[in-house]
Amino acid sequence: MTNQDTEKDQPPSSFLNKIKRFFTIKPSSLDDVSVLLEDALSARLIDKEAQFIAERAIRLGDTTVKEIMVPRVEMVILAPDEDPLGMIARIIDSGHSRYPVLGPTKNEVQGILLAKDLLPIINKDLDDFDLKNLIRDIKVVPESKKADSLLEEFKKDRSHMALVIDEYGTISGLVTIEDILEELVGEIEDEHDTDDEDLIQVSEYEYIADATLELTEFENKFNKNFNGIDAETLAGLFINKLGFLPKVGDKIELDDMILAVTAADKRKIKKIGITIKTNT
């Protein structure tokens, strides 16, 4: 073997230096870890997807459940005294596998219903149906809880959902193991994640709408008429009424309903919660 062949078989010095740096530098901050991951990617020790997951994993400890939870206005909630046929219809329509069950008082947590637990009784006489017989315990966590800590608890007790409460004990949302995993690997779509569900009923008097919902569809659904409004979508109506680009939490009132922005970025509204006002 010639000296030239030997030199060909040896990796470039820069490659060796990167490997050496990857295994010898002791990171002192998350930014240092990010630099090491970038070096590992450049040295082809990991691929781009592995770098993406690792970057998000090391920052999961800084993420609170409040940042990733499903807000209360988007939750599909069951009540223990709810009509069983109507409840089953809502479960089929929403397509979730788990549903929090709340009592008659505002923040009374009774438990969780697994949709699969309805299968043995779904074709039976529902006259004696009692939802309380199917309710399981549900985890309750504060908004400040870290996502990585909750993930460990989910793994330990094999649960998949927790209700989230604020500092006053008010239910502010829910978080699932899927929400946490999506922080690591990005959006996870299942057979129920479709793009054509622009308006979903989440309780008797509450809906969640895509901001791009056509205004004519909104008018037909809720028997409204906005002929004098220069808008084609629900987002356009909201901005027209408010007078400026809204942020999450901004609200407007339209006759017997309250509209609130539940998801948005700096450029546009994404989701709008709709609450029908009642006399009670």
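(ticket continues) Second input and output from the same batch:
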Amino acid sequence: MPMKTVLAWVIFSFILHSATSADCAAVSGDQRPMSPTAVSGLMPVSSPLSLTENRGQWPIDSDAGALLAVSSLHEGARLFFFVRGISLVHYAVHQPPTTSVPGSELHDSAVPPFATWRADLRFRGCLEPTVDFTDAIDEYRHYYLPAAPEGVDRVPAWRSIRYRGLYPGIDLHCTVQDGGLKYEFRLQPGADPGAIAMEWIGAGNPVLTRKQGLLFRHPAGELRDEAPFSWQQAAHGAIHPTESFWTVEDGILGFAVPAWDRDRSLVIDPFLQWSTFLGGS
């Protein structure tokens, strides 16, 4: 197996382990100042702002079930989508000066050390959703890795992942966009928004901002979840904004929607953003 493929698998396996290990809040690895150079060139994932579907090339399970997809590098982070949750992993590479061995291509540090931090978003009390992908990208990847030595060919890339029936009558749609993660809870008529329950593990305690969003401060940076924008669509197609806001009780996040027409569908639309001290923005 070519050396570059082996190194790519070593690095990617480390980050996947970071995304599934029990130690959520710690910053690990080299603590010296990090180079802004990311390791995206070594990572077997897709083009910017896309999701690579897991078709067996990454045999990873977690407390939130099997790994479904991995996002491309975005703002110094990757998103790992599981059946019952999402993990956010920040990482950066420190590349110290290397000393070449005379007459050889070898260096004193073949795999540069890197620091990681992760947090896990878990869907509490959810059902077993049916998951599919939408908005295909005209791109395929081919994997020949230790976990799949016979190869996994023509792995597609997508813009969005959809969790159908995550809660009774409620679907979740997620899209990695420039600036963060856009995720929408789409409620069928009569569904209960109070059924939605989420918990961040490893992100610290949420603080309500002046704009009614949520702020998490952690050792490696910040997470911000905007105030939810909720709306319903009338029969003639007009969009009617509906009041909604975050609820926080014993670390569990949810939504309150004081008044909405239960005979029509409802969309609750927050927006997650992140920043890190590890080399992302």
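Agent notes: Helices lie at 3-18. The CA atoms of residues 144 and 151 lie 4 Å apart. Closing as not reproducible unless the customer responds.
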